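Duplicate of #3305? Posting structure anyway:
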């Protein structure tokens, strides 16, 4: 209670000594609580007005009939956390979602790293928010170039040798490594004596073991035990499925880390909403695991923040060589 010698009892309703100050104080506290509850709602309503009334989330169905119901817990949590109405817009393919983000038909989506790179190259109109981690703590992978241990000890020793390469659409077995080598001054078509086409990383390893190539391309987290092929990737698959002795292989080149996936937002979304989305994603796995796994069923390690520079490896193939 306020000291009477500072504030006269007759002029200060809060410091009244007849017990009435308790009622005034209670009303004051109630008002503060109401403001705390209503402030996020008011902010959400203001954001909704900025967004034309609703927040539009793009989701790739990949042919799944239950894609909408699967993503609903994430939509519901986002709507609750942000305090503004949100809608799901279903797309059949990742390409459709990328185009929808570029055109502004949706404002939020989950893209692959290469799809984000394509969108950023097309319009510079999307921003990365967060990337998922796997259950082992890896938040991405590297494109890698592998040789037989002891036979070709370094990248320079591969000059004039044969490299097994995957299809042109492959991120880790073609696009990223070939662009990375070219950017370092080693044009693959001149540096190697032959580029041996294979269907993918596993066939590339088989070609390497069978003597049909001197090096092969693949991907790896490069996290965990090397003897068992690390936590995920071509080497781990070779150890698990093909029973190859991965100890006989050595990695002589690796790309910068490539995020497994990325949650993006349109650049024209307000800075306040971007910040609130980042905050939501950073705590989503701990505070709303059902919503987290609704949108990230394959990566159980939560989200990490990402920046545009984290995608340098997948941006490189889009640059003029």
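Output from current build:
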């Amino acid at each position: 209670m306020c000291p009477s010698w500072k504030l006269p009892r007759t002029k200060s309703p809060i410091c009244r000594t007849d017990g009435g100050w308790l009622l005034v104080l209670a009303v004051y506290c109630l008002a503060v609580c109401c403001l705390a509850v209503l402030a996020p709602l008011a902010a959400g309503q203001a954001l909704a007005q900025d967004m034309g009334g609703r927040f539009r989330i793009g989701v790739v169905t990949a042919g799944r009939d239950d894609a909408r119901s699967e993503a609903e817990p994430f939509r519901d949590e986002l709507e609750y956390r942000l305090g503004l109405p949100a809608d799901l817009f279903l797309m059949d393919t990742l390409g459709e979602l990328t185009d929808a983000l570029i055109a502004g038909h949706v404002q939020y989506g989950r893209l692959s790293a290469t799809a984000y790179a394509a969108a950023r190259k097309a319009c510079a109109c999307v921003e990365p928010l967060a990337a998922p981690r796997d259950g082992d703590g890896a938040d991405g992978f590297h494109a890698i170039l592998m040789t037989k241990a002891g036979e070709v000890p370094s990248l320079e020793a591969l000059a004039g040798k044969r490299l097994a390469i995957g299809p042109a659409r492959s991120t880790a077995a073609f696009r990223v490594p070939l662009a990375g080598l070219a950017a370092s001054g080693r044009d693959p078509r001149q540096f190697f004596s032959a580029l041996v086409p294979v269907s993918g990383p596993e066939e590339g390893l088989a070609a390497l073991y069978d003597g049909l190539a001197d090096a092969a391309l693949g991907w790896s987290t490069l996290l965990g035990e090397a003897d068992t092929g690390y936590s995920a990737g071509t080497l781990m698959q070779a150890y698990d499925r093909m029973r190859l002795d991965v100890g006989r292989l050595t990695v002589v080149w690796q790309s910068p880390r490539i995020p497994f996936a990325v949650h993006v937002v349109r650049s024209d979304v307000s800075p306040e909403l971007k910040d609130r989305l980042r905050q939501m994603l950073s705590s989503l796995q701990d505070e709303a695991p059902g919503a987290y796994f609704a949108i990230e069923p394959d990566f159980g390690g939560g989200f990490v923040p990402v920046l545009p520079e984290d995608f340098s490896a997948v941006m490189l193939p889009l640059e003029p060589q």
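Confirmed duplicate; merging threads. The first helix runs from residue 20 to 50. The chain has a mean pLDDT of 87.
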